[in-house]
Request: fold
Amino acid sequence: MLEDAAGRAGLRVLLPAEGAALAPVSTGVDGALGTVVAAAVVAMWDGTWRRLKACPRLSCHWAFYDRSANTSATWCSMSICGGREKASNYYRRRRTR
Reply:
């Protein structure tokens, strides 16, 4: 599926002095998807792909970049999703006692 999007975008390799990059030739939706695929490929190449995660909260599922030193972040935002999930679990445990 990603390969198909990359093919429709016509990704090409750019080699400027600042460093190599992938860029879509196509415009519109195919070009936009190509930009996303190019970012994913670069993240896979440079090792940052494993830091891209999805928030596990059922009403969220936002993607976020794990900036923690040991790649252990779970929530997109501890003050929003993490806090709400922990509070919900706490109230659920208190109610069952």
